[in-house]
Write a structure and sequence with these properties.
By secondary structure, the chain is an alpha/beta fold. Helix content is 33%, strand content 16%. It has three domains: 173 residues, Dimethylsulfoxide Reductase, domain 2, CATH 3.40.228; 222 residues, Rossmann fold (3-Layer(aba) Sandwich), CATH 3.40.50; 122 residues, Barwin-like endoglucanases. The strands form six sheets. Strands 16-20-17-19-18-21 form a six-stranded mixed β-barrel. Strands 3-2-1-5-6 form a five-stranded parallel β-sheet. Strands 9-10-11 form a three-stranded parallel β-sheet, with no helix packed on it. The longest helix is centred in the middle third of the chain and has 19 residues. The chain is globular. Bound molecules: ligand MGD (2 copies) and molybdenum atom.
Length: 567
């Protein structure tokens, strides 16, 4: 974040509501624009707050980022603004990629995206001539059935302009949850151990089996799938968005949910409710009773961030120490402690079932942690990129970003400076694919969903904060003034007073409906409404659908066909 905010000559923010959803970084970017004249291009269907600071705002139709990016790259190639030496030295597959880009002349890009041709030229010039330029995105790019393709196309753009591996450049996804980067780094994905070490790699399996004392456990190998080796599975698991539909398909029988509220945050809430009613066994580890807790067979009380000591890894791969600030309340226990107690009991039962064949070493397989620094030592030993990131170093105030393989390594603020992980950067030919569900005669408007500054996802934490509820106490649906007039909404309604006449609208999709107060605003273009999922009585996920990106399995939260009526 430091180098981007201090050294980029231009920013391309595409699909990130930076000032509301990443306010600290958003402030750094606004200051860069205001005080040192950095250029800012924002590509977002909505007139979000940061567009006030933008040199140029491109207002594409939702779900048309690929034609937009390809159109910009067409212009860059047409004008000869590409970085020829970077392409030559650091990349491959340029010709195949270029052939695809040539299918997106500005007129065609303009037709699909709705952005005027002159604005495409203006944007391409700003982005190409102000180097280094940093691309910044968040869920506006990824929550689509083309999420992965969108990201790859932005990587194409940065390779084309030679903006990779440079201070002030790069591809910069703004991660969302405080520790979502850490969760992925620690193997919270179906196909990898820590630091993206594949579960399908026999050497990796052996390393972990040995460390966890499972290398001389039962040698149960499934002949068909060869899935269990040395007591550790090498089978690729499922993502959340596959486990949930798996319930009604009879593939998922039980769930252990830790710190998620799927009734609020997963797409198509009705389907989620049916699924959770049908599941055989559900354990929920939470800090508050949530919308999901009513479906749980067992509730386990975890602790909040303020009651724990450990680390979070933030969006720039920086590992940060948090320390327990208040005593644990009631029966709550550290999340890691609860998980390890469950693990011990499972291992005990398994040992009994197998007639004690598991030996002593395997019995607790290292689940006897004293504290979170004990866990960090295990991470250091088994995770090359975290090898040198110890609690002791963090306690001295060192600011460490992985990869940091050894105790004397200073950490790595910028990746890919000399070469990419795979060697040469591979240009990918990326074609446009339309969204899964577009408006039609029955559902003529487009719903986009996301967050507001004052609330956090399902709102279990923020709806308990009085001050936040005073500022933003109910779900609001953004409706363009043109649509408001057509729908017969009263434009004089003063939102702040909360007084009648109220403009309550009903938004209906193929899966459900919600009713909430309209906020008449040109933040959304005509034909589009915007809703959040912070309030159970009017959550956008009653409307959304579970169409997934085929690779990342992320749902297309950003595009749903709806109809809107005055209540
Ligand atoms: N206050 C607050 N902050 C948060 C969170 C929170 O709940 N509350 N959540 C955190 C988490 S986990 C995350 S993932 C991040 C999310 O951070 P963001 O991704 O910035 O937040 P979103 O509200 O999902 O909206 C992203 C932007 O994408 C735009 N958009 C919609 N459709 C499209 C499209 O087709 N193309 C493009 N280019 N843009 C589109 C929307 O108009 C919006 O401005 O925020 C984090 N920060
Ligand atoms: N329509 C729509 N839906 C979306 C999105 C969207 O843009 N549009 N965005 C998606 C995205 S990017 C995200 S990240 C998800 C977020 O979805 P969730 O992860 O389900 O939402 P959160 O509210 O962040 O957290 C879930 C629960 O964790 C609990 N919790 C907090 N701290 C702790 C802790 O320390 N320990 C334990 N055990 N529990 C804790 C909270 O009480 C809360 O109920 O929503 C997704 N859903
Ligand atoms: Mo997120």
């Amino acid at each position: 974040m430091d180098d981007v905010a201090k050294e980029a000559k231009a920013f391309f923010i595409i699909g990130s509501n930076t000032t509301e959803q990443h306010p600290v970084f958003g402030t750094m970017l606004r200051r860069a624009v205001k005080f040192r004249g950095a250029k800012l291009v924002v590509a977002d269907p909505r007139k979000i707050d940061i567009t006030e600071f933008a040199t140029l705002h491109l207002r594409q139709r939702p779900g048309t980022d690929i034609p937009l990016i390809n159109g910009l790259m067409y212009i860059i190639l047409e004008k000869g603004w590409e970085d020829k030496s970077f392409i030559e030295e650091r990349t491959e597959n340029f010709d195949e990629f270029k052939a695809t880009v040539m299918q997106y002349p500005p007129e065609k890009a303009s037709e699909i995206t709705g952005i005027p041709v002159e604005k495409l030229y203006e944007a391409a010039e700003i982005l190409a001539k102000n180097s280094p330029m940093a691309v910044i995105w968040a869920m506006g790019i990824t929550q689509h059935i083309v999420g992965v393709r969108n990201v790859m196309d932005l990587a194409n753009l940065q390779m084309l302009l030679g903006n990779m591996g440079k201070a002030g450049g790069g591809v910069n996804p703004l991660r969302g949850q405080n520790n979502v980067q850490g969760a992925c780094d620690m193997g919270g994905l179906p196909n990898v151990f820590t630091a993206y070490q594949p579960v399908t790699n026999p050497e990796v399996i052996e390393k972990f089996a040995k460390a966890w004392g499972l290398d001389h456990g039962p040698q149960t190998v499934d002949d068909k799938t060869l899935s269990i080796v040395n007591g550790l599975s090498s089978k690729i698991g499922l993502t959340v968005t596959e486990m949930m539909p798996g319930i009604l398909e009879g593939k998922t029988h039980s769930l252990y949910i830790l710190g998620e509220d799927p009734v609020m945050s997963d797409p198509d809430t009705n389907h989620i409710r049916h699924s959770l009613e049908a599941i055989d066994f559900l354990v929920l580890q939470e800090i508050f009773p949530s919308e999901t807790s009513v479906y749980a067979d067992v509730l386990l009380p975890g602790v909040t961030f303020a009651e724990k000591t450990g680390t979070f890894t933030n969006t720039e791969r920086r590992v940060q120490m948090v320390r327990q600030a208040i005593p644990t309340q009631g029966d709550a226990r550290d999340d890691w402690w609860i998980t390890s107690e469950i693990a011990k009991r499972i291992l005990n039962t398994r040992m009994k079932d197998e007639g004690g064949r598991m030996n002593e070493a395997a019995q607790y397989a290292g689940w006897d942690y004293k504290d979170s620094s004990d866990i960090m030592s295990e991470i250091n030993a088994l995770t090359p990129s975290y090898g040198g990131i110890t609690h002791a170093r963090l306690e001295t105030g060192e600011r460490l970003q992985w990869p940091c393989p050894t105790l004397d390594h200073p950490g790595t603020p910028i990746l890919h400076t000399k070469q990419f992980t795979r060697g040469k950067g591979k240009f990918m030919p990326i074609d446009h694919v339309p969204p899964a569900e577009l408006p039609d005669d029955d559902y003529p408007m487009l719903l986009s969903t996301g967050r507001v500054l004052y609330h956090w996802h399902g709102g279990q934490m923020t709806r308990r904060a009085k001050g936040l509820m005073q500022v933003y106490g109910e779900a609001l649906i953004e409706v363009n003034p043109n649509d408001a007039e057509r729908l017969g909404l009263n434009p004089s309604t003063c939102l702040a007073s909360g007084q009648a006449p109220r403009n309550v609208v009903r938004v209906t999709s193929r899966r459900g409906f919600i009713e909430a107060q309209a906020w008449i605003t040109d933040r959304v273009p005509p034909g589009m409404v915007y809703a959040n999922f912070h309030f159970p009585n009017a959550s956008a996920n009653e409307l959304t659908h579970a169409s997934l990106d085929p690779v990342a399995k992320i749902p297309e939260y950003k595009i749903t066909a709806v109809k809107v009526e005055l209540v």
